[in-house]
Design goal:
With 383 residues, the chain is an all-alpha fold. It folds into 2 domains: 266 residues, no CATH class; 99 residues. The protein has a two-stranded antiparallel sheet with strand order 1-2. The chain starts with a helix and ends in a 10-residue tail after the last helix.
């Protein structure tokens, strides 16, 4: 290690992350082997893993960094409290760096730039920090006194929420050492690296479903580990949406929790992108990906393929726009007409269904065209 790299080491982070990781992979297995693990220890570990993980995804990320919904002071406090317990810095700093990541993704000003390497994006940017934090991009958060208290007294918040409270709970159940090893060190390490996978794995592996020009990719396994944050291509394309997995079956407990809070009146102003904008972005990404791959190869029918795909894309775009127009017309009629206008509403609804069916038929043709010209079609062109 040369002197320049040595001087760039953030020794506080290096010692903290090195120690917690070492204890987690060595101390925890030894403890489990020697003493076993009780039901209360499993329950405590599960609670703190879920509470801190959700506080990062719902609180730090979707509430504070992207302002995708509004909520009450109780949820704000819980997000700050358990978020501090995750030991990922104050939300004021976390949100500032994350907003820079979106604004400058894949450039030198990206705090966890994947072009610096997988390890750097995963944890190297924390251990060898060489970027400046510009808090001018979080002035909206600065107006919140509780957020600023957490920022100024972050160590107190983190130690109280992340070490003292789980230790007290472990002592109360007769498993103090188990709580310190599992619910503190083991849990911190698991939540840390699950979160870090978003910056590394989701910018290196997976599918850039919605934008081939940035490194962000969708990865199902990371979505499972991070309460839905693995749909990263979608998130970078639509960062203001409170969902990361926008389809109902996408594994995204964070969006389900936000939706539940809205249902009981504890959250409001949930921002969500129209499904038509989402479909349009996906189609553009697919078209550009196919054009990129075909342009790189001396495909025997490349020009003909490009012309066919171009024509199909224009048909598809028009069909999508028509479907959207009919949906808006139907929604307008529903708001304006009384019950005695059932015939008009039925006719409008049929137009919506017909437009949707036409879009799906052209979409199937489009998909077959892609597979015909590129049997091993992949959208991974940005890395």
């Amino acid at each position: 290690m040369n002197s320049q790299v040595f001087r760039s080491i953030n020794w506080r982070n290096f010692i903290f992350f090195g120690a917690t990781f070492a204890v987690a992979i060595i101390g925890v297995p030894i403890y489990i082997y020697a003493r076993g693990v009780s039901a209360s220890e499993i329950a405590l570990f599960t609670f703190w893993t879920l509470a801190t993980g959700i506080s990062i995804t719902v609180g730090y990320h979707r509430l504070f960094a992207h302002r995708t919904f509004k909520t009450n002071p109780i949820i704000v406090f819980l997000s700050l409290f358990f978020g501090a317990a995750a030991f990922e810095e104050s939300v004021f700093q976390w949100a500032s760096q994350h907003r820079d990541h979106h604004k400058y993704v894949d450039t030198e000003r990206d705090p966890y730039n994947i072009k610096q390497g997988f390890f750097y994006a995963h944890i190297g940017w924390i251990l060898f920090r060489n970027h400046t934090i510009d808090f001018s991009n979080v002035k909206d958060l600065q107006r919140n006194k509780l957020i600023m208290h957490q920022h100024r007294h972050y160590v107190l918040w983190a130690l109280t929420a992340g070490v003292l409270l789980p230790a007290v709970m472990g002592l109360a159940t007769g498993h103090l050492l188990g709580a310190l090893l599992l619910s503190v060190v083991g849990r911190i390490t698991f939540v840390h690296h699950s979160t870090f996978f978003i910056n590394s794995v989701c910018h290196y592996f997976g599918r850039p479903t919605y934008d081939i020009h940035v490194s962000a990719k969708d990865h199902w396994l990371v979505a499972i580990l991070t309460n839905g944050e693995g749909y990263h291509s979608f998130h970078h394309r639509f960062p203001s949406d409170y969902r990361n997995g926008y389809k109902w079956y996408h594994w995204d407990p964070s969006k389900w929790l936000i939706a539940f809070l809205a249902r009981i009146g504890w959250a409001e102003d949930l921002k969500r992108v129209s499904k038509f904008h989402i479909l349009a972005a996906r189609l553009v990404a697919e078209k550009e990906a196919v054009e990129y791959h075909l342009s790189k190869e001396l495909h025997p029918i490349r020009n003909a393929a490009l012309e066919t795909l171009k024509g199909r894309y224009e048909q598809l775009k028009h069909a999508l726009q028509t479907w959207e127009t009919h949906v808006k017309e139907y929604a307008l009629l529903c708001n304006q007409l009384s019950n005695k206008s059932d015939a008009i509403l039925k006719s409008a609804f049929e137009r919506v269904q017909n437009a949707r069916q036409q879009f799906l038929e052209i979409r199937n043709q489009w998909s077959r065209s892609i597979q015909q010209y590129l049997p091993s079609f992949s959208l991974s062109v940005s890395s």
